[in-house]
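Practice problem: Protein kinase domain-containing protein
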Amino acid sequence: MIGHISDFGLAKILSGERPNYSTNESSSLGVRGTIGYAPLEYGMGSELSTNGDVYSYGILLLEMLTGKRPTNERFKEGLSLHNFVKAALPDRVVEIIDPILLQESVRGGTAADIILNENNLGNDMHLKCLNSIFEIGLTCSTESPSERMDMSNVITKLCSIRDKLLIQLGYVVVFELCMLLNQQVIMSSLS
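Answer key — structure tokens:
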């Protein structure tokens, strides 16, 4: 199964188009949403809700970070993408993250290099931010609809993470410029 854009916003789409439509009634559409992305309560007959949309978003976020679909063969017998991520955080984020993202976050380093240097993980802003994004995905995809994060809070937290990364990037750029200027000063003093 592959998640589709139609998995997001089902509550608004179905209830907004037809005001007299009950989101709890059966339809010829069958299951509401794609397996793995639709919350458990939909399978039990609950009404469509924005909390269900938040769940779908959380699963998509976890999928993007791990590179694993919620329908992956690995997730059987009570193991789910949500539980897989939850068991790994916060100490083993390196083990579950999609290797492509990991390489990007360490600017070309390999997963083996990072695992060997685990003592430095706590200081790496990129991994801290990735861990925070995983936490958002977990909170959004929790089993209980009432415990899921509101999307306005999701946006606030994601913007905060983005800002932290941009500030760090700014410091890195300034540092690299200073190093380059220092090299230029040294070179000009030698000539």
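Discussion: The chain has a mean pLDDT of 75. Students who identified this feature from the tokens alone can consider the problem solved.
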